[in-house]
Design goal:
The complex is a heterotrimer. Chain A is an alpha/beta fold. Chain A is built from twelve helices and 14 strands. Helix content of chain A is about 35%, strand content about 15%. The longest helix of chain A is centred in the last third of the chain and has 37 residues, at about 335-370. Chain B is α/β, with parallel strands linked by helices. Chain B is globular and about 75 Å long. The two termini of chain B are about 25 Å apart. Chain C is globular, with a radius of gyration of 14 Å. Chain C is of the alpha+beta class. In chain C, about 15% of the residues lie in helices and about 30% in strands. Classes of the chains: A alpha/beta, B alpha/beta, C alpha+beta. At the A-B interface, α1, α2, α3, α4 and α5 of A face α1, α2, α3, α4 and α5 of B.
Chain lengths: ~450, ~500, ~130
């Protein structure tokens, strides 16, 4: 019997102790009309050898490719030590650290994580993580609405170049709470400051600023931050964590700095993994900490005065506040945060800065190699590690042919951003080599039917 | 047994050089105003220091792999290593979520079959795998109930009924969905007070959220009557699958009258708890809620005899599912967790699943009987335990001053993780104990003996029990100090040091 | 046994009120309430100038184990809050009727609020709950 240790003797002794004849008798409180005999819709059990064979065969059906696709998930080097340690049973099979004395490993790790994320974002505090970047963005909007006491507005200003899927997720999650996301128009690869004039006199709780934005470009973060603060709005930074090793952190934007930072933590040691699990990060200024959703770990001392760690500020949370909680979230993405903390420790600030710089340089090389090819242009610069290319013909068939040649050519922007024409979002992380980029160039030339120099 | 913070182990300039590019690429084209002036305060340590530090931290934890972990309502059963290893095969792990469907047929086939198996275990007709935790599954469920009423032009139904024994996420979720919460009491036998329910239902009722077996560790015997009352008033029934492990293969939520269910795959289907996530809180629904399921869903192109796509698996998203409540994650929920659950379910098979509920229930009833025989007080002695049960220590507390929390801490010294304490809120000084099916009789006996020994000590020398724990890396921590003198980052302990000079001792 | 000063008025939700000579009303939580909550770690207070209706959640008192709303016992405008609680929330525990006061309110026109209890009625309410 898989994962059940009982011998026949154990079982009969236990049934005797309870005073019933069979295990089925233990279900006698379920009304007979509701009882079923089994689960015919579930296939018979397999041995570990058989399921291994099955899963290997299915995994092998994934076609290995060279990845120039980003759009919210990025292929970075993950040091071998990260998952070797993160999947140790003591991390993998522990639960939320409610019994602090029996969970100091997880608690100290989360404290170290909070310190790293606060440091990366340039803000005072971080929570212990949320589900993913999209939900962290939604929670940041909610948090801003709760915190913006002066404004009393339930509207959040969201530039067009915030990840379109994040905007969809936020709409789904916020629909029940009458929080409105108002799109801030843009057409030039960054938010147009002149367009802000049309918003004068309207009341918003917060402005969200993507960093870099979904098209890889840089918003005028200082000007936007000061503009929003001057109008009593909070500023939410939606940022890529790798970029923060290289770029000015949200806490230093404008005169006063952003108030909240959120983002997708996947680039920090989490595999692409077919889409998850990832983790979302959320950091803020100290003054907003009681509006922050999710777990938070704090340092304290034990009865002997020795330092230790515990969950704190729990009165914000659902198990105490019930219908008045800051969120219904119960846990964080503990295992993912374990990996990210190990990753950030191994990379350090210099290592992470080099990763960021190499991503940027490789993307410049990629854009350089592809522009000019059959009329391809790059309309926007500068950019971080993703850039828009404009193709002379529809993107989807081109991507299909590239995929058949083993190249994931990027993200088709034409559905989300039709104003860009045949827009393609390309990405080259630190893992892409000159040979990879050349392979892309040759394959694309072949698809477009243009000749390339050797 | 203390491990210094990783930040305090570094030295300026120390690195793990094989993990990053060997040279710093130029960034001269970036706007100077956007360049970071001071590096973030990350540790400066070697690879061996990192490995040693996090290995040592892991050793400060209790976990299923090292300790009996009878945390009620959390189903801390053995997490098979095969699930982890097979979900981490490179073909799954290295796949970008936006890769073409044609590249991902093996992955999609696993998810499609997982959807089908989850329909079978719930009796429901539609499944969405995207919710990333139980709380998100709850959100999806209540949001679908709201969408259903709104689509019928019945938008005034905004009230969600919740029993007072419910987990705090139930009311918190209702609030997130823009609903009001009405609590109803539990009767003395642990079942919902159906008369009280009749009084609160009406044209304002959106639905009721129930856990069955309930958080009191007993099967809700009048569930059919409850369903009739709620449906009769025009409301829908939400099944919180926290305790599905208790009835797996024994009863189907759909047959009980539920319209929507969420299942915590990290409980019933043994994906890792990971120190508090990632989980997975899939939702399953009956026909009437099916159009509203969150996207994406995995579909199969059947009967399209174009010779190319027949039998191919595909994503169903916005254009296929226009009435969906929308997306709840950036891509496809916690995909790797879904694969782990898939592997576990295939290892068990239908018969294995029925054995899970059987032996989980056997273990709980055996342990309850043993503790009752030793003089402990079950909260509902007249009831059959489900896969978990409650004992109340209120008499011992009154007699000795030793509380449920003191018992919990004393158990740590005896090498057992504590049960859930002080939940559900309506039983005083309670321990909610869930042994799970993967523990052997001998471990249950050892746990029972530990509780007996602690009680005996409490009667003899209560102060000694209150000193516990003595053997853990730290002893009881000062929660008041943690909340009043907030210490949430390493930087906050070193305010005088400018950023970037953090390791210069 | 909880302390219930004679000269104050009370609500069923365990708030107390004291009418001042300048016409304002000072509000706090009772000794019984602070005892139930345990040591407070944080008090969230309204901003001055906020208009209150009876029953509005106007403050939150938080311990490590519980968080409780404090409801406005009367209509009026917040004219001040206790500044000491930002750094010493435990004053609510040590001196609930004095240094641990929460909010000062200028009552709206329209006469005294209804439904308030005198000290003996409030003490009887506490006795009945035991």
């Amino acid at each position: 019997m898989p994962f059940i240790p009982h011998t026949a003797d154990d079982t009969s002794a236990m049934l005797d102790a309870i005073g019933v004849r069979t295990i089925d008798d233990l279900f006698d409180e379920i009304p007979a009309a509701l009882r079923v005999d089994g689960l015919p819709g579930v296939p018979a059990g397999l041995s570990e050898a058989a399921i291994t064979r099955l899963m290997r065969e299915r995994a092998a059906r994934n076609v290995p490719s060279i990845c120039f696709l980003g759009a919210g998930a990025y292929e970075h080097h993950i040091p071998a030590a990260v998952w070797e340690i993160a999947t140790r049973g003591e991390f993998y099979s522990a639960y939320t650290p409610y019994q602090a004395e029996a969970s100091q490993g997880t608690l100290q790790l989360i404290y170290e994580y909070q310190s790293m994320l606060a440091g990366l974002t340039g803000l005072d505090v971080s929570n212990a993580s949320l589900y993913d970047g999209a939900t962290a963005f939604a929670e940041a909007c909610l948090m801003a609405v709760r915190s913006a006491r002066g404004a009393r507005s339930r509207r959040v200003l969201v530039p067009r170049y915030v990840n379109p899927v994040w905007r969809k997720v936020a709409r789904a999650l916020l629909a029940g709470q009458n929080v409105e996301l108002v799109e801030l128009a843009a057409s030039t690869g960054r938010t147009d400051l002149a367009a802000l004039g049309a918003l004068e006199g309207q009341d918003f709780a917060a402005l969200c600023i993507p960093y870099p934005n979904f098209l890889g470009g840089f918003e005028p973060v200082d000007e936007l931050t000061d503009w929003a603060h001057a109008r009593g709005m909070l500023v939410i930074a939606a940022c890529n964590p790798t970029a923060l090793a290289l770029l000015k952190p949200p806490g230093e934007w404008g005169t006063k700095g952003a108030d909240i930072a959120c983002g997708e933590g996947q680039p920090l040691g989490i595999p692409l993994g077919s889409g998850g699990p990832y983790f979302g990060f959320l950091a803020c200024r100290q003054a907003l900490v009681r509006q922050m959703p999710g777990r938070i770990v704090g340092g304290t001392v034990d009865v002997e005065g020795r330092p230790g760690f515990t969950l704190t500020l729990q009165a914000r949370e659902q198990h105490i506040r019930r219908s008045k909680a800051t969120s219904n979230i119960c846990t964080n993405q503990g295992l993912m945060v374990t990996a990210a903390t190990i990753y950030l420790s191994l990379l350090g600030s210099e290592g992470l800065r080099r990763v960021a710089a190499q991503c940027h340089a490789n993307t410049r090389s990629l854009v350089g190699a592809l522009t000019g090819l059959g009329g391809i242009s790059a309309p926007f610069a500068p950019y971080f590690h993703e850039a828009v290319l404009t193709l002379p013909r529809p993107v989807a068939p081109v991507l299909g042919k590239l995929a058949a040649a083993g190249i994931l050519g990027g993200y088709d922007l034409s559905a989300d951003f039709p104003e860009l024409g045949h827009g393609l979002l390309v990405c080259a992380t630190e893992l892409r080599t000159a040979e990879d980029i050349d392979a892309y160039r040759r394959a694309l030339a072949g698809v477009l039917g243009v000749a390339v120099a050797a | 047994m203390r491990e210094p913070l990783i930040f305090d182990q570094g030295r300026p300039g120390r690195r793990a050089p094989s993990q990053a590019p060997g040279v710093a690429a130029p960034t001269d084209d970036l706007p100077a105003a956007l360049i970071r002036r001071t590096p973030p305060p990350l540790p400066e340590v070697s690879e061996l220091q990192v490995v040693r530090h996090f290995t040592r931290l892991s050793q400060l934890n209790f976990s299923i792999d090292t300790h009996f972990y009878p945390l009620g309502s959390c189903t801390m059963k053995y997490n098979p290593r095969a699930s982890n290893k097979l979900a981490m095969l490179p073909g799954f792990l290295d796949r970008h979520p936006l890769e073409p469907e044609g590249h991902a047929q093996g992955f999609l086939e696993c998810l499609f079959e997982l959807q089908e198996m989850l329909k079978a275990v719930t009796g429901m007709s539609g499944v969405s795998l995207t919710p990333m935790a139980g709380a998100q599954g709850e959100f999806a469920g209540v949001a679908m109930i709201r969408a259903y009423h709104v689509a019928r032009g019945d938008a005034g139904r905004t009230q969600i009924i919740v029993p007072d024994a419910a987990h705090g996420t139930n009311p918190a979720t209702a609030t997130m969905c823009g609903c009001d919460v009405v609590e109803i009491p539990t009767g003395p036998d642990g079942d919902v007070d159906v008369d009280a329910l009749r009084k609160v239902v009406g044209p304002q009722t959106a639905g009721i959220m129930l856990t069955n077996p309930s958080t009191l560790g007993a099967f809700e015997r009048r569930i059919a009557e409850i369903a009739a009352v709620v449906h009769g008033a025009g409301g829908l029934l939400y099944y919180d699958g926290a305790n599905l492990n208790a009835i797996l293969g024994r009863a189907l939520p759909a047959a009980m009258g539920f319209d929507v269910v969420h299942i915590n795959l990290h409980k019933t289907f043994s994906t890792p708890h990971g120190g508090g996530g990632p989980g997975a809180g899939i939702v399953a629904v009956t026909d009437r809620l099916e159009p509203f399921l969150p996207i994406p869903i995995v579909g199969r192109r059947d009967g399209q005899h174009d010779g190319q796509h027949d039998g191919q698996y595909c994503w169903l998203a916005e254009k296929d599912r226009p009435r969906s409540i929308g997306r709840l994650s950036g891509f496809m929920g916690n995909a790797g967790i879904l694969l782990r659950a898939y592997v576990y379910m295939r290892l068990l098979g239908g018969e294995g699943m029925r054995r899970v509920s059987g032996f989980a229930t056997l273990n709980a009833n055996y342990l309850m009987k043993r503790l009752a025989a030793a003089g402990f007080t079950p909260a509902y002695p007249q009831r059959r335990a489900s896969h978990e049960f409650i004992i109340t220590l209120k008499d011992i507390t009154r007699e000795t001053g030793v509380t449920a929390m003191d018992f919990a801490k004393a158990l740590l010294d005896k090498g057992f993780h504590a049960p859930t304490t002080y939940f559900p809120l309506l039983v005083p000084e309670c321990l909610l104990i869930e042994p799970t099916e993967s523990e052997a009789r001998q471990d249950l006996d050892g746990f029972a003996q530990a509780l007996i020994d602690i009680r005996d000590l409490a009667l003899r020398d209560p102060a000694e029990v209150k000193r516990a724990p003595l053997t853990t890396p730290v002893r009881r921590l000062d929660d008041v100090r943690a909340a009043k003198q907030l210490d949430l980052t390493w930087q906050s302990r070193h305010p005088a040091r400018p950023a970037g000079s953090h390791n210069q001792e | 046994m909880s302390d219930v000063p004679r000269q104050l008025q009370y609500t069923k939700e365990h708030e107390w009120l004291r009418r001042e000579d300048d016409g304002t009303v000072v509000v706090g939580i009772t000794d019984h309430a602070q005892h139930q909550l345990g040591e407070l770690v944080y008090v969230e207070l309204p901003e001055a100038g906020r208009a209150l209706k009876p029953g509005d959640a106007m403050a939150v008192v938080e311990s490590t184990k519980a968080a409780s709303d404090v409801y406005a016992p009367l209509a009026g405008t917040v004219t001040g809050v206790n500044p000491a609680l930002a750094s010493q929330p435990e004053l609510v525990n040590t001196d609930p009727y004095g240094a641990g006061w929460l909010v000062r309110v200028r009552p709206a026109d329209g006469g005294p609020a209804g439904g308030l209890l005198d000290a003996s009625a409030y003490a009887a309410l506490l006795d009945a709950a035991h």
